[in-house]
Amino acid sequence: MARGRIRARIRRSQLYTFGCFRPQTYEEDGPHDFHGPGYSRVVHCNEPRMHEKKPLKYCSNYISTTKYNVVTFLPRAIFEQFRRVANLYFLLAAILSLTPISPFSALSMIAPLAFVVGLSMAKEALEDWRRFIQDMKVNLRKARVHKKDGLFGLKPWMKLRVGDVVKVEKDKFFPADLLLLSSSYEDGICYVETMNLDGETNLKVKRSLEVTLPLDDDQTFNEFKATIKCEDPNPSLYTFVGNFEYDRQIYPLDPSQILLRDSKLRNTAYIYGVVIFTGPDSKVMQNSTRSPSKRSRIEKQMDKIIYILFSFLVFISIISSIGFIVKTKYDLPKKWYLQVPDRENLYDPGNPLRSGFYHLITALILYGYLIPISLYVSIEVVKVLQALFINRDVEMFDVETGTPAQARTSNLNEELGQVDTILSDKTGTLTCNQMDFLKCSIAGTAYGMCASDVELAAAKQISMDLDGHSQASMPHSWRKGGCSFGEPEIELESEMDPRHPIKGFSFEDSRLMNGNWCKEPNADVILLFFRILSICHTAIPEHNEETGAFTYEAESPDEAAFLVAAREFGFEFCRRTQSSIFVRERYCPSEEPVEREYKVLNLLDFTSKRKRMSVIVRDEDGQIFVFCKGADSIVFDRLARNGRMYEELTTKHLNEYGEVGLRTLALAYKKLEEDKYAAWNEEFIRAKTAIGGDREAMLERVADMMEKDFLLVGATAVEDKLQNGVPQCIDKLAQAGLKIWVLTGDKMETAINIGFSCSLLRQGMQQICITSMNTDALVQDPKQALKEHILMQITNATQMIKLEKDPHAAFALIIDGKTLTYALEDDMKIPFLNLAICCASVICCRVSPKQKALVTRLVKEGTGKTTLAIGDGANDVGMIQEADIGVGISGCEGMQAVMASDFAIAQFRFLEKLLVVHGHWCYKRIAQMICYFFYKNIAFGLTIFYFEAFAGFSGQSVYVDWYMILFNVVLTSLPVISLGVFEQDVDSEVCLQFPALYQQGPKNLFFDWYRIFGWMANGLYTSLIVFFLNIIIYYDQAFRASGQTADMTALGTAMFTGVIWAVNCQVALTMSHFTWIQHLFVWGSVAFWYIFLFIYGELNYALDVNAFRILTEVLGPAPIYWSATLLVTVVCNLPYLAHISFHRLVNPLDHHVIQEIKYYKKHIRDHRMWKAERSKARHSTKIGFTARVDATIRVLKGRLNKKYSINNGVQQQT
């Protein structure tokens, strides 16, 4: 704490000029004048009891991301279950089973339905309970709240009320939206990290009103009273309008005084604030959307199949009723022994239409086995087990944080295999907020031997070419002419590979390290380079007492990397005071460092508009310097004529750095005369103390006067440290055919640099930047003019893409949040989406959480394809909930994204395994499982219809009730569950080696209508074979040695045996991957049927249905029973076996080829063929490492080809 107070004495507001300078007469600007709706909120500070009654009663600070609560669970969960048409049908059937017209007992209809619905509701309750537990972890966080008499005590976040005064300490999250009253700094500023809100990692500076600065101690709040009148809750993160009434004065409020919930206090010991917005009213929650009820595309399509089967069910029921009417009217009167009409008038020849209507209802229930009641519950069981395997996957377990993958909902497992577009946050999702100083250019000389990730990948690919794996693709003249890829222009030294252990510093070059820079020809320029790195910044040093080294709290990761690099070069920034920076400079390793003081005269800070930062300092000799760092295009435009000595070489180096994905800045300086500085400083002071709307323009103009006539020193190249494995993951996902969009709250330059780092962007890719124009000069309808300007840019870009002839040409769309606001309007969103679809990558920057959700909705609804959103912060909740699949990054700060997600992983790189492996498997498993389910139920259900027609449409079932109950519950359920849980067309390693296999999901190859109707036709064929073969065999001949013919029970049991064998052999033929569990379930189900028959035949109940000892005495001793079963099984499965054999021979799918290669072990014996197949299984892509390396190789081959042509021309001339 003592160290915090030392830092607190620095009045940081004097260092800043644009962002946080407070004019001396700021509070004399006057209060905001607002009236009417939207500005009705009144907050009584330090008087929360005033807000316990209406009209000032506001919502609590309790938040919830659950789907249900105690009151809504039953009605909403029941609605969810009976939204499924099959469940609705079986509910109706269960109700009708209570009437005399039902062919089955009520228990046999109600019990399965109650079991299925109850199990599904229990699963929903369990998953929502987990969400509730995570919500409560946040709601029960503790905050220090003023109670009374200047005493602060701990209180759960959920119990905070509007008007409470809270004290938040360093590195803690703000529990609600607060008005900053004071901080540990004397001038009331604090540093805030808003990564959870807008994705930015650079610290924001917030400042309190000067009038509340004395409120810097607990006791000062004893008598504190004030009133805030402000805007109503709204989702805008960057605006706030309000007035602060205190001590009979009114002061205007703006966003610089507002601390938003879920942002974090950094570099500040503590702050005091008063609660303005709580819970759902807070801006971060206003940007979130309600937890949606998501259903997969397969499940929606399954409903359509149910509709088709239900229509077919009604159709055959009507046919049966018509047949029954005819029989009742013309045949029943002749059969006097049937005693018609009966007491219930179900069989009344006098009124055949009424009897036919009753029979229609009977038939609808009787043929209900066409619609599988156990389908939904089997899918639920399979999905839960699939989710368990995802959770237990050790390759998706993050060792550092101890965090496993988590399937928070299992409803969407198969959707993971059908993703078309990924919408990703940047900060904390793709990046780990760390920069590494890698290379630099000083005085026209390039330094730094370490290779970037892009260089290493290109070198690896080219070495494969040299090894002969791709020699066939090289021009013959190259090989014959001896032209080699070992040319210096593409050579990578072996020492590049090792990585330096110092965080933020991966630089390797002995010419600059250990004081060797003193021996370089331009040592004086190198000295200036190091000084600019160590002085031109706004960071604060912190001394680590354990290690003795300094760490740096900087506004951006770049700045921290520069300071670490300066320290390693021997220029250690060690202390900052009110007006000075102290640097320990070491020129030789054997000498002691010299601590030098540089007085900071002015600081012109970095903004996205300026794209540069300058500091004016006076050294110990009294010489005044202006040190500047910024974007090369900006700095080069401000160079003096005599300052361009190194411009050409530096530009060459900058282009090389950009090609390999490094972020670059140019460094320059100039010396100032004392009188020139004094004159400029007067202008600067006059501008920064000005009041009015032109203050910013005046400051910009004065800064421009100073920032010119520079001398170029050099350039830096830092590698934005992506999360481990991110480029490789993006590359693999791109090869799998997935499109990747980045939606970030970060600045455009930062987003573009990250795009280069993770290979979403690359050199040679044409960037289409859609921006808005300045409308200040427009008098009439500026909004319409702005929309027309944006639409024109979109139209021109779309036309340019259509006219492009180069097949290798790639386009990237980059758009900012302000422009996106108009692009998402109804009359522009379709052209915008069409343009975005034509581009290889899309980056949306400076977007709000609401815009992230709107973009996600546009892609989802506009393309009609599956979208996946991934993020780690509260600002990503909206898009995570809006997307078809939401993935949260756990293990990062804040759990809001995880709580709102469907799946949670610890690192972005695990998305590769989640989609390419688990997604691919789950899609195929569920698709095959559902198709098989409909097949087996059609095969079984239609035999009931055939027999009912055979028996004169009497409504009689050929099967015993117990057979029918066991069919779906036991005899065929476990094999299909094993298919859904364990089936693998290829193993996980092959899935990753052949990423294009993933496209089977987005193309829906295994659940399209062709395949669905094929399985239905197979079921129809099986039902015909089972029924008619058994009728032919058993109908008019003795089947036992003693001469007995088959009765209905014997025929039904024989038919049922045929069905069990046929459908279980069918599922065995469907499987590509067998484990002992699958063998146990498939053949165990067949064995269980015979065990059941044996036990059932011994029970007294069997006497009632004429099934006593049906196996041991009736069917078992008859050879014809066993031969008929074998014949039925073979004939039923022969067409499917012939079909899959023909398909594999004539038109094999990718996984068929891979299976045969693996089966014959050709991947071991013939590596070349295996690699060739792998290269074919890459989806053509223009983003990712592979595309970047391919582009680099094309450039290098072009150079070599050109060089060889020139050499040949010279040789021919000589």
Short note summarizing the structure:
The chain has 1214 residues and is of the alpha+beta class. The longest helix has 41 residues, at 910-950.
Structural class: alpha+beta
The 3D shape can be described as: elongated
Kindly report the spatial arrangement of strands forming the biggest sheet: 14-33-32-31-15-27-30-29-28
Determine the N-to-C terminus distance. 81 Å
**What is the arithmetic mean of pLDDT?**
81
Largest sheet: 9 strands, mixed
Overview of this structure, please?
- It is a single chain.
- By secondary structure, the chain is α+β, with helices and mostly antiparallel strands.
- Helices cover 45% and strands 16% of the residues.
- It is built from 39 helices and 33 strands.
- The strands form six sheets. A nine-stranded mixed sheet has the order 14-33-32-31-15-27-30-29-28, with helices on both faces. The chain has a nine-stranded antiparallel sheet with strand order 17-16-26-25-24-23-22-21-20, with helices on both faces.
- Strand 28, helix 20 and strand 29 form a beta-alpha-beta unit.
- Helix 9 (374-391) packs parallel to helix 28 (973-982) and helix 12 packs across helix 13.
- The longest helix has 41 residues, at 910-950.
- Residues 1-28 and 468-500 have low confidence and may be disordered.
- The chain crosses the membrane at residues 85-101, 107-126, 305-326, 357-379, 933-956, 962-982, 1012-1035, 1050-1069, 1081-1099, 1119-1138.
- Residues 43-110 form the P-type ATPase N-terminal domain.
- Residues 898-1148 form the P-type ATPase C-terminal domain.
- It holds the Pfam family PhoLip_ATPase_C.
- It is a multi-pass membrane protein.
